[in-house]
Design goal:
mainly beta; globular; 8-stranded mixed β-sheet; 8-stranded parallel β-sheet; single chain
């Protein structure tokens, strides 16, 4: 087992790898990466920032990618088992630690500019087996895909088979295990759609005065950045992930990560 508590220690790794650009602004504060298996990879963007973060690789051939961090906010407890990918694109933010668990060779993909409130969980497996009356398994693990500019509310859980369209909102305490329509607001256990054709902005109203509230009754900026009205492309996302290689070498992994980065924002029309 290898435990990394400072980036400079990555040079001592033999059977696992942490990949960074030679010149970078990576922050690695009160964080650690634990390797219990072999041939695992961590890819860090040159502007990624890890604070109060623990990453544990329990198995082999898994990959964690962390893109450029927004607002100096990245706190996570990440666990990967065998042949899984956890991918966080650029601009994600975390109010308090996000817990993400990837297992059974399935993946967790998070798009750009996703905002996680405190107490959020993502997991793509039920862990324990469930069978029907014919002794057939009925709870195989599934991938999780979260699109761009999604707001995940406090204490929400994103479970296997969740496909959350770009521009959507998941309300406080929600349990998600299905497709979520792009630019919609959703809440509940189980989650239900509340309203279509919405968009949201990161601006906080905490310090608003009554005057500020009045000024913001209508959105006067360009909303096109937050409205995702392209044709549905969930199948293309699913096919790309389904066709990914077994993670065995650096160059093969980098090629696949670039393919994911170049996909158009996830649009789900359910």
């Amino acid at each position: 087992m290898d435990t990394i508590t400072a980036l400079k220690e990555k040079e001592y790794l033999r059977n696992n790898s942490i990949v960074t650009e030679e010149i970078n602004n990576i922050q690695f504060s009160n964080s650690k990466i634990i390797f219990k298996g072999e041939n695992n990879y961590v890819f860090l963007d040159k502007d990624a920032q890890l604070k109060n973060t623990t990453v544990t690789f329990h198995g082999d051939n898994s990959v964690l990618y962390i893109g450029k961090t927004k607002n100096d906010k990245i706190e996570m407890k990440v666990t990967l088992y065998n042949n899984s990918l956890i991918f966080l694109n650029e601009g994600c933010s975390f109010n308090k630690p996000l817990t993400a668990i990837a297992s059974e060779a399935k993946d967790i993909i998070v798009g750009k500019d996703v905002m996680f409130s405190s107490g959020c969980w993502i997991r793509n497996s039920d862990v324990h087996m469930m069978y029907d009356e014919n002794q057939r398994r009925i709870n195989e693990s599934k991938n999780v895909i979260i699109g761009d500019h999604v707001w995940i509310g406090k204490d929400s859980s994103i479970l296997k088979g969740s496909y959350i369209g770009s521009g959507s909102i998941i309300g406080l305490g929600s349990i998600v295990a299905k497709k979520i329509k792009t630019n919609s607001t959703n809440a509940g256990n189980p989650v239900k759609k509340i309203k279509d054709n919405i968009f949201w902005d990161r601006q906080s109203s905490h310090f608003f005065t009554e005057e500020d509230t009045q000024k913001n009754k209508f959105y006067t900026k360009d909303s096109s950045f937050y409205v995702f009205n392209n044709p549905e492309n969930l199948t293309k996302w699913q096919d790309t992930i389904q066709q990914r290689p077994t993670f065995t070498n650096h160059f093969e992994i980098e090629s696949f990560l670039k393919k994911v980065m170049n996909l158009e924002p996830l649009v789900v029309l359910v």
